Amino acid sequence: MNEKEVAELRRHLHPDRHTIVNVHGCYVNSQKKVISRFKQSMGMMQDAEREQYLALFKKVLSGTLGRNLLDIPFSATDVAEGEEHGVLMRLRETRLQDGEALETFWQRVIETLEEEENYLILLCHSNYDVPFRSKTDALDRDGDRDQEVYSHLLCCVCPVKEGKSGLSYDRDRDGFHMEYGDALAAPPVLGFLFPAFDERRANLYSALMYTKDAKNTHEAFVDRIFHTKAPMSAPEQRSGFEAVLSDALEEECSMEVVQSVHQHLRTIIAEHKESKVPEPLTITRATVDEVLEDCGISEPKLAAFHVRFDEAFGSGESLPPRNLIDSKRFQVKTPTVSIQVDPDYLDQVKTRFLDGVPYITIRVDEGVEVNGVAVELSPDAEA
Q1: Contact 193/178 with Cβ under 8 angstroms?
Q2: 339-356 per-position pLDDT tens digit
Q3: What distance in Å separates the CA atoms of residue 252 and residue 295, rounded to the nearest whole number?
Q4: Which run of H or E residues covers position 306?
């Protein structure tokens, strides 16, 4: 899915446009005991209550693609005969009316979560009449040229915490309603959309998972609900990429090489942002290859880089460059000193050998401060 497709579904979750009939919920305590299972009609809710539920589901469609929003692919075998995929399909096709499939889903989610507090699992079904998109990229919401009805599920897992007011558990009404209470549904930490909305139509071979914490890809949840391996998290991709460069290039992994790779990826990110292309930005091993070749890396080291990269990420794998570098920061670190540099001024950081001793030098003009105190640098000053 791309940014425009995600945004289009978010706009559909509006009080005046959504097509959610019922919200199904399962309220579980920290010992994984079910406190309540409930179904609430969106049409019977008060406006404030309805907006709170829609806000929780919209959160599942927020964040950055490749970091908080992760593509979960299904194999052809999974789609044809996979039990996990089959449960999701029954929930979708019956609009959550299959009680057995719903209970199976609740139990599988409960099995995988390791929360130390109470939490609320919410699930809804929605039909979106996909409007025709003209050549000028404008949506014809009022026309008669709907391409298809996009039938999908939205799920979110919300911690239940103490608070002032919000969606709070009402024991008498056995559900979550707008109340003042001590058991309020917080924003979700996890959720998913099934099937994915690729090219503005249902893709039964993919789901879109949301994680609040980009470091946590909820491996047990992904395995139990989707029967597939969780994607590598953004921090894991960055640390893996750094290790690949260091281990493969060895003594040829100079500061200048790392600077060049960082600057090249940063340029790609900036150009993509300026182009406003909705497709997620990804790069392959070949993209980094070009930079390394320009830096004069030897053939043996390039070959080693190919092997290490494929081992770490998979042959032919595409990665979001935003996950591989911090485009807003460049850090130089030694065991005793840490220096942060604005990436726009990387050319001011150099390595030098003086009397055979390696140094990192930084060119400065004015505005030097030490512990917040402005200082002057004298050409006669001694180290």
Answers
A1: no
A2: 888 888 888 888 888 888
A3: 10
A4: helix 299-313
